[in-house]
Amino acid sequence: MKIATWNVNSIRAREERLLDWLERTRPDAVCLQEIKVVDQAFPYAAIEAAGYQATVFGQKTYNGVAILSLNKPDDVQRGFGDDDDDAQARLLRVKLGGVEVISAYVPNGESVGSDKWAYKLRWMRRLGEYLARRFTAGAPVVLCGDFNVARDDLDVARPDDWAESVLCHPEIRAAMDRLLGWGLVDVVRRRHPEGKLYSWWDYRNLAFPRNEGLRLDYILATEPMAARLTDAAIDRQERKSGGATKPSDHAPVVAVF
DNA sequence: ATGGTTGCTTAGCAA
What is the CATH number of the domain that holds A133? Predict the structure, then answer.
């Protein structure tokens, strides 16, 4: 089972590249983030013509997540389903062949100490509570997404530049550690313990050609799934410029179980 | 210290 995650930074801006990538990669499921459209504006027809079912949790202008899958999901859930009412579309879960596949878009947090930072920390706590409430670490769960966190300095090309940022601050790294501590394996790290692989490069300052990136996108699997891991990689090719279309600022991450 | 880019929506915000 091939599972991928990709922050496309607008599905409408990325439609052509997404279709090319689907044809080339043919994942069983891909978790998308930042689709930036309401459900009615999602390009269902093109995705279905490519052979994929689209499960969408959209939002106007910002955020929005989706999961594309070769098979029809057996179960779908949008949001945390907790008491905290939240207008932001950042979490979507489907069940595929007995495996829970989750697409998550963790808030960026803007700047340490801001209201958005507090929301990011709270959102991470809710995500942890959601997992603990719904699943056990012995069940097949694959949590994918843009976590807006670089776990440690192996995930950052220039760690000193980012040390106090919302992506690397000790508080958010501790939150990420707690999430993994519930029973999730970072599959790219397991396959590439030497690190120095990135999934996001700023559009500015020639960050990609200089390979000055951070790893913010993860596929996190419970041990029953991680035990069946055969491959995990970041598709840097997809971040390259050139041709008629522009890349997202994030590269896809792909794992095979 | 600032601005550098992209996308959505149309001057400014979010990333």
Answer: 3.60.10.10
Nucleotide nearest to A105 (CA to C1'): B15
Strand B contact at CB of residue A165, distance < 7 A: no
Evaluate whether A77 touches A90 at the Cβ level (below 8 Å).
Answer: no
Give me the number of domains chain A comprises: 1
Residue-wise pLDDT for A209-247, tens only, equals: 999 999 999 999 999 999 999 999 999 999 999 889 999
- For residue A102, give its domain range: 2-256
Interface residues 206-225 of A with strand B (CB < 7 Å): none
Task: Kindly report which amino acid residue has its CA closest to the C1' atom of nucleotide B4.
Answer: A204
Q: Is the CB of A13 under 7 A from strand B?
A: yes
CB A134 within 8 A of CB A94: no
| Interstrand relation of A217-222 and A184-186 (parallel, antiparallel or unpaired) | antiparallel
pLDDT per residue as tens digits for the range A167-200: 999 999 999 999 999 999 999 999 999 999 999 9
Average pLDDT, chain A: 97
**pTM given for the model:** 0.98
